[in-house]
Amino acid sequence: MKNTFFLILVTLFILTSCQENKRIQSANENSKTYLEESHSYAQPNDAVITHLDLDINVDFDTQVISGTATYDIENNGSEQIILDSKFLEIESVTQNGEQTEFELGEFDESLGQPLTIAIKEDTKQIAVTYSTTAKTEALQWLTAQQTADKTNPFLFTQGQAILTRTWIPIQDSPQIRITYDATVKVPSQLMAVMSAENPKEKNGNGVYHFKMKQPIPAYLIALAIGDIEYKAISERTGVYAEKSMLHKVHEEFSDMEKMVVAAENLYGDYDWDQFDVIVLPPSFPFGGMENPRLTFATPTVIAGDKSLTSLVAHELAHSWSGNLVTNATWNDFWLNEGFTVYFEIRIMEALYGKDRANMLALIGRQDLEDELEALKESPNDTKLKLDLKGRNPDDGMNSIAYDKGYLFLRTLEEKVGRDNMDAFLKSYFKKNAFSTTNTEDFITYLNENLLDKNNITFNTEEWIYQPSVPENAAVITSDAFSNVEKTLEEFLKTNKIDVTKTENWTPQEWVHFVRNFPEDITVTQMQTLDDTFNLTDSTNSYITMVWYEQSILNNYHDNNVDTKIAEFLNTVGRRWYVTTLFNAFAKAERIEEAKEIYKTARGNYHSVTANTVDEMLRI
């Protein structure tokens, strides 16, 4: 009887594994005809990589990664395979274990160079031995002083959108999905983690092995190395951080398992086995990066009260929209981010209520209005479907993709009803799992599986292919924000504020309060608010950022605010925060002051942030 039961269990396990493998393989087979795109030199319809085996050594003394990237490939009768490469030293290349010819093509400032490798009809594998250089943009090497604990150096990568090619020669297109294994050698006092199956503690010898069995695009291959520790939240969730940060991070993100459950209840199973977050040093250029199994996060979200953890909900939502179903090209970026903002706000509503969800949505709506104003001279950039040929795809990573994309989906939900919307999205994620899609395919799927099916007419093409925001956009309201606006109006009339009305305000309410200062607010009024609420020394980075922005725009210099702004810009590398403040300096015609701060701050920024500010300040 026991043997029979055991055989049944084994059979069920094998069947389940086979079904999962077939699901992943099916997704790969369905995406074998690749779209032409302008941000990769790869020609995947001729020859395409399917699996990476990475073997690298990480040298903190020379700040160089060196080793060999070995690829399994599928060759459709081509005599060459093309990889993307930028700022890499290529030492040698083999095909099927034999030395082969290779050539690095003409250099492009954004795209780098095509690495063209000679192959044969029967070539199943290529290997590239290479090393990174001082110009490699994906890597940020940090000294001990730039970390929280200040005892050991740190390294992290940032691949999105097209920077993975600067630390691995690869076919760097979002529509090309691969599995990978990696062996990474690091100093023995440090731990390495990747967007893969990860260690939970240091192993003593500094050699770490990784496996990512689900196929992912190149921009999601990520590596972080530092003196870090792990603390579990549940069996499938946990956090990595430097020792001095670990307890605070664990407390802040203690609702992660609840978030995963809420997400699964909405749109189906979490397909990545593990959902962990690593909090990186302050120079990390984004709020978060959705690297599968291991989200990278900025320490600016550690507020002590879980008030900024919508970022975790956002990166978790990417496990479906972005990682599971990926934009085929960067022109379709809204498919990643608009869906993710919608999903994030649904998770936040499920956990914390409609009021908080609407506050987040309304702040996004205000961000969208600011973006529309900033882009009024280039209206084509306010379309959801973009044409970024000849441009860096980073140009499309703004509030249009995120917040106009969200508003489209929210308006659609109000038109079709939430139950219909949820059923549609659940089927969309399941149908396209582990594959890529583009805007046109999405529209076809939307029409067939939601609109036509329910006899509903919707102005989909206006939303996607026309500038600005259509007139039928959902109207987002918040009673809490209405009360904030009344409190601000009373203060501006009387120069007095009833602090009892603000006692239970969330950070989102404070942000709304500060962001809505009128242009004619006086320095005296700013000082009154600062003296009453100590906004210059707020411990919430979001409140601090919007207060500093208003201080710059309104020439408020009291309470040592100028010194605090300079300190903030020298210690925080989150691009959104940094560019907001430098943009405020430009608007206030204090550009020389901004440049003086930037001289000392630039060395603390990742290239993603530094390149944006360079262009902004014309340096």
Q: Counting H and I runs of at least 4 residues, what is the number of helices?
A: 18
Beta-strand percent range: 15-25%
Number of strands: 21
- The amount of helix comes to 25-40%
Largest sheet: 7 strands, mixed
How far apart the termini lie comes to 77 Å
The best one-word shape is: globular
Uncertain residue ranges:
1-12, 22-31
Structural class: alpha+beta
| Averaged pLDDT | 94
Q: What is Rg? A: 25 Å
Strand arrangement, major sheet: 5-4-8-2-1-11-13
Properties at a glance:
619 residues, single chain, 20% strand, 5-stranded mixed beta sheet, 21 strands, alpha+beta, disordered N terminus
How would you explain this protein's 3D organization?
The protein has 619 residues and is of the alpha+beta class. Helix content is 40%, strand content 20%. The chain has 18 helices and 21 strands. The strands form five sheets. It has a seven-stranded mixed β-sheet with strand order 5-4-8-2-1-11-13, with no helix packed on it. α11 (479-494) packs across α12. The chain is globular. Mean pLDDT is 94; it is low at 1-12 and 22-31.
Structural topology:
Layout lengths: L1 H29 L16 E13 L4 E12 L4 E6 L2 E8 L2 E2 L2 E3 L8 E6 L6 E8 L6 E4 L11 E4 L19 E9 L5 E4 L12 E11 L5 E4 L1 E5 L4 E6 H10 L3 H12 L7 E5 L8 E2 L4 E4 L12 H8 L7 E3 L5 H20 L1 H21 L24 H18 L1 H14 L3 E3 L1 H13 L8 H6 L13 H16 L12 H9 L7 H11 L7 H13 L7 H11 L3 H13 L3 H11 L5 H11 L2
Parallel strand pairs: 1-11, 16-17, 17-19, 20-21
Antiparallel strand pairs: 1-2, 2-8, 3-7, 4-5, 4-8, 6-7, 9-10, 10-14, 11-13, 12-14, 15-16, 18-19
